[in-house]
Structure formats: C-alpha cells, structure tokens
Amino acid sequence: MSTAPAEPVSVEPPTTRALGAGAALLAQTVGVVSLLNGLLLVAVNATGTLFGAWDSPEPLGQAMVGAAMLGTTPGLFALARCHRWEEARTMMWPTVVALTGLSAVTFLNRDALVMVRGGGIVSFLYSPGWVAVVTGLALWALAAALPHPRRPRVLPDVARLPLPAWSKPALAVLGSSWFGIGTGLLFLPGYWGGFVPWQVNRADAQALGVWALALGVGVLGTLAEDDLRRSRAAILSVPGVALVAAVVLAARAEAVRWSSGPALALVAMLLGLLVAGASGLRLTRDRRPAPVTG
C-alpha cells in the first residue's frame, strides 16, 4: 500500500489593524492641549491661587487635575506615532475615558462653573473654553476609537514582548486600586470625597475620579495586553503622572492631611505608578522580542 505525502498546511502570519489617521491626529491634539492646560493648572494652583473651570474649596484639587493632564503628555505624543491599533489601544481607551468623563463631570457640575457662579476674570474667561474644548475632544475621541475593533486586520504583526510573570500580580493590584477609587469618586463623590486627604467639592472629587479611573483602565489594559511593545504609549504616561503629582503635593503640602490613611495610600499608589512605568521602560529596552507565531 502506498501512502501519498501529506500536503503542507499553510499558516497565515498574524495580522493587526491599522490605526486611523483621525486617532493619530486626535492624540497629537490632545497632547498639545494637555501640555498647555496641565502647565497652566499646575503652575497657578500650586502657588495657592485658585484657577480652573469650576469653583473649588482648595487649589490642590485643580492642580492635581493639571498634574494628570501634564503627566500623560508623553504617552499621548507616543500614541500619535503608533501605526497599529493594537499598539495604541492601551493608551487610546484611557484617553477616551478621561475625555468623556471630564465632559460628563463638567456638565453634571455646570452650576459650579465659574462662568455660571462668577469669579476671577481669568477663570471666568477660561471656563467656557474648557467646556467647548473638552466636549469637542470627547466626541472626537469616541468617533476615532469606536470603529477600530471592527476594522479588518491588514498589517503583519511584529514580535511581542510579554510581561514578566513577576510583574502581573503587582499590576493587577495597582490597576484595581486606581480603578476602584476612581469609580467610587466618580459615582459616589459625596462619600468617597471624604477620603481625599484635602478639601474637595463634588466637581473636584468627580474630576479626580475620572483621572483615577483612566489610570486604572490603562494599567489593567496593559496587563490584559501582555505586551510591553504594544503598551509603550501607556507605559510612558504613568511615571510622568506620578512625578508631576509629587511636585504638586510637595508645593501644597500644608493643605494635605499627611497623617491620614488616604494620604499614605495615595503616596503608595503614586509610587506604584512610578515603579511600574520605570520598570516597563527598562524591560522594553533590555528584553528581546518573542517570535511571532500564528
């Protein structure tokens, strides 16, 4: 009996989706807006002068919002240079959360806006610009991100850099902490705002909750992606947030209840962001990519 040779099985190489030009342009635009607004909010509020779109009982809340904006700028500019959706999504989804969340919080707290309540002339002029820009960018972010998961895969994939096993439990704890605190501040600001170690109102608590939620989505998304190369834009964001927030806290140290548990928890979570980001950048530089398999 003769046996015919088995026909070779063709295995198609893995493919990825192209990142739309609108998403890259959005990232560049949001990066510039975050840089300018973050610098302004940090520089003014860190000196103790209240400045922002809404009225606050303590400038530190507005300064921390600015710190989050300024700290994520490197990740946004890195996102603008991505070519594949798969290497952009760990930064893109947190950007969508931050923009849509800030737009919703601004609308829900419209009675606290300086252009409604009145206040300093500079904040009064800044307030309507904030509303217009954040709302416009939120709509743009949704339009740019949502179609990508349904697009066909057309680009060949490249080598992967899996996360080391030892880092995954720590990332799970860090991401869950930011996600949980952000959810609490956003949806129950009256209760969770009491755990913020400085004086905040509803708008402050919810705005800080949006940023905490976005950080949690970014860290947990990096954990789910399990690829340092694809998560580079998100990795670039977290150490910047930690560093700028630390500068702001040091500048307004007298406003913080340092002996409280929430203050210690905040310091630990910021330190976690710094270590996670620095470790991720170091591992990206030192480790060799794993081969792509079908």
Characterise this structure:
- The radius of gyration is 21 Å and the shape is globular.
- The chain has a two-stranded antiparallel sheet.
- The mean pLDDT is 92.
- Helices cover 64% and strands 1% of the residues.
- The chain has eleven helices and two strands, in the order E-H-H-H-H-H-H-E-H-H-H-H-H.
Mean pLDDT: 92
Strand order of the largest sheet: 1-2
Radius of gyration in whole Å, from Cα?
Answer: 21 Å
Order of helices and strands: EHHHHHHEHHHHH
Biggest β-sheet, characterized?
2 strands, antiparallel
Q: Could you say which overall geometry the principal axes of the C-alpha atoms support?
A: globular
